[in-house]
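[recover] target loaded
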């Protein structure tokens, strides 16, 4: 049976993550409140930000920046997006 959560990104019941994506309290918060679809959508956004802004996951400031953007993304607040990205036409 698929586990469901009330997704804070999409504001509806959706299938949840199979396991917390991070260790500790932050991972548990995401596991409890973020759907698998929202997490997948964030992963795509995160890759675009890392590539466009040349972020290094070895740099604490870059990790902090991504964490802030992730929190904004899931809270439906304004967040940075890849400015050069143009979504393909959905046909």
């Amino acid at each position: 049976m698929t586990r469901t959560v009330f997704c804070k990104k999409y504001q509806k019941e959706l299938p949840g993550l199979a396991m917390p994506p991070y260790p500790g309290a932050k991972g548990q918060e995401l596991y409890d409140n973020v759907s698998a679809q929202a997490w997948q959508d964030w992963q795509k956004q995160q890759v675009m930000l890392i590539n466009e802004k040349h972020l290094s996951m070895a740099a604490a400031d870059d990790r902090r920046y991504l964490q802030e953007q992730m929190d904004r993304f899931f809270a439906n607040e304004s967040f940075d997006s890849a400015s050069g990205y143009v979504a393909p036409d959905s046909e």
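[recover] notes: The first helix runs from residue 24 to 33.
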